[in-house]
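Final report, Chapter 2: Outcomes

The project's central promise was a pipeline that accepts a single protein chain and returns its three-dimensional structure in a standardized token representation, suitable for archiving and comparison. That pipeline is now operational. To close this chapter, we reproduce one record exactly as it appears in the project archive, with the input sequence first and the structure output second.
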Amino acid sequence: MFKDLGTGMLAFLLPLYIVGLDSNIFSDTPIVVKAGIIATVFGISNALSQPFLARLSDSLDRRKPFVIAGMLGFTLISFIYANTHNFDELVLLRMVQGITVGATVPAIVAMVTHMSSASTRGVAIGIYSTVRGFGFGLGSVTGGIVASYYGFATAFYVCALLGLASLILISFFVSETHDTVIEKKNVPSVGHSLQFTILSIAMFMMMAGIMIIFAFLPEYETRLNTGAISLSIAVSAYVIVRVLFQVPVGFISDRLGRKRIIAMGLLLNIPIVIGLGHVDNVTQLIILRALQGISMAAVETPVMALAVDLAGPAVSSRVSSITASQAAGMALGPIMGGLLAGYISFEMPFYLCAIMLMVSLILLIVFIREPGSFDNKNYA
């Protein structure tokens, strides 16, 4: 939670911090595109590093060292941000930080999985996501308040301290976990592989629609005539509501099935994304972001639970396709939004996101089946 509190602060602060930075390479680039670049380099490096690091984690049957290394990298780079005053340098640092975070995500998901059973997995992942989401959501508000009253440098130092707190807690109070299922053939069937692909697409589309807003923070600040604190509330509204709904959604998905809950979440997010391109005031933005929190809770928790149900042993490497797609959506959503808004129109990226969500919904309905419908479902 502490690390994700820092992550939420950085995700909110960096698009605003870059407004006053010099750049040698991107000097003539629109600010919405620069904001998209900052989010994209983090997400791409995060997404590309996850599968490799997850396979390494599974091959070693070790997770805790990867989490510790990732937390250490996050802490050091957050500290360096406070003394970075060039946009080009910030891009490089953000890329490296994406790799450090990529080391932690599959390992942590695997550890949570090892601590749960198939009948409680939705709730377990819901609780884990709730704690993370609470930190991330609180991070936006915290970042906005600290930066407004004490400056960006102080806010970055706070992020570093939060990363250090996570590092200490994990080092001393978290035990290593191991795969408990022995299975000689670790290759999913064609049906399972297709489902992983569809779930990855759905997660990518959702995150693109969620994260697109970060490219528009400087633009919203001008259009809606608002400030950093109001924008931080809008950003946090999504995460706070998502946190409130994740455990109940996980409980429901354990009993009613994952697919129908995921479909409802995708469907709900379509009109919300379109609405984000037509808000007239910050209140509307806050309401739509809160509704996005409900839609994301209905997708993320069941998707992760379904992926783990299908994965069997070697959870890190298999589920990393989902978490990597999530990171890729976080990366490409802002840059796509920034490019389309900067060079075509403000509304265009929101319509494109809505179409992407509709495509993922259709794929889900056509191709996804619950694990119980497979004949070869002997996965723990």
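Archive annotation: The CA atoms of residues 36 and 335 lie 4 Å apart.
This record, like all others produced under the grant, will remain available to the consortium after the project formally closes.
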